[in-house]
């Protein structure tokens, strides 16, 4: 979704420029990052208009993106870890973002997804949102299915009826085994 939006932004920019200044090649990293920031800004302005109602401390950074102040400040880490970007729950952008991370990380579970997402983003009610999205994943649902088990099969009639000694005999063979002397032997078990 971010790359598609980056292509749309490039098209819009190319429409405003002269023919000689068109960008025609692959997307640059800066264009992808810019499109991600703009999508986040659009999502936040549309779905998070009332910031004061939240219980946590928020602020707007230099890129006009709403961030959350975390309690972890004494650690040497990236600024996105200290102040993650705030995202709304149950919105299409958030769902697509979670699905892409889920696929990139080989259909990881809820706890791993939480730790991966919290490095950069703070999703409101993230565990509930993650559960609902991961429960909709067809591949994960396929691997969570328990195999069907049938009850024990009934014994054949010759195993249950009374009979004379050695009337019914079973033979099991095991081998080829080598003794310490180098001889070859087989084991025959009569039951």
TrEMBL record:
<feature type="domain" description="Integrase zinc-binding">
    <location>
        <begin position="91"/>
        <end position="145"/>
    </location>
</feature>
<dbReference type="InterPro" id="IPR041588">
    <property type="entry name" value="Integrase_H2C2"/>
</dbReference>
<dbReference type="Pfam" id="PF17921">
    <property type="entry name" value="Integrase_H2C2"/>
</dbReference>
<protein>
    <submittedName>
        <fullName>Integrase catalytic domain-containing protein</fullName>
    </submittedName>
</protein>
